[in-house]
Amino acid sequence: MPESNAPSPENGQPIVTPAAPGKSDDVLARLDTLAGRFESFLKTVAPGTLKSTGTGADGADAASTSLASRLTPRMLACLFLAGVLVAGLAIVSPQQLPVAGYKLCLVVLAGLLGYWLDRWLFPYARPDGYLAREWRAHGRDYPDSEADYAVVPGYETVFAAALLRRALVVLGAMLGLGLGL
């Protein structure tokens, strides 16, 4: 016998029922639809940035790959783990979600600040200045025996030091902001 004060369509309140075990296909279909919409948005905003993998009438690639298929397994595992941790935080202590978001924003801003500090402090010793070729000027069509982005011969140690210097400046900014607040 149903209770008289239970939500029903007659009183205008929606009926909320827990998801059935077979509803995960619905969620996956929705996620795929959202990923497709995001891809089409990217195509309109920045055309030519997405690679095509389908075959067209002329035998060339015409359709684009899905966003999920381009994620590497390592990054997909990290994304899944982050989602599980956020869901766990939401279940255990939902009032901490804004605090976690605030801290995440601070860490990202500190990373950007550290990057720009390095660029401002060392304008003539940027790590990409030691590469043999401009890294944006070519694709990744190197043979297996050659590095993706070759360093000028004789500057390998200086290149490594510039990379470590930038990493330490960014780390210092992130630690300083994270420990200071």
Provide an overview of this structure.
By secondary structure, this protein is mainly alpha-helical. The protein has a domain at 99-181. It is built from five helices and no strands. Helix 4 crosses helix 5. The longest helix has 25 residues, at 97-121. The radius of gyration is 25 Å and the shape is flat. The protein starts with 23 loop residues before the first helix and ends with a helix. The model is unreliable at 48-63 (pLDDT under 50). The chain crosses the membrane at residues 75-93, 99-117. Residues 1-11 have a biased composition (Polar residues). It holds the Pfam family Holin_2-3. Residues 1-23 are annotated as: Disordered.
Short description:
The protein is mostly helical. The protein is 53% helix and 0% strand.
Distinctive features:
Holin_2-3; 181 residues; mainly alpha; transmembrane helix
Kindly name the structural category.
mainly alpha
Compressed to H and E, one letter per element, the order equals HHHHH
The averaged pLDDT comes out at 74
Poorly predicted sequence stretches spanning 5 or more consecutive residues: 48-63
The proportion of strand residues reads under 5%
Instruction: Measure the end-to-end span.
Output: 56 Å
Helix percentage: 40-55%
- Main beta-sheet annotation: none
Radius of gyration: 25 Å
Which descriptor suits the 3D outline?
A: flat
Number of strands: 0
Helix count from the secondary structure assignment: 5
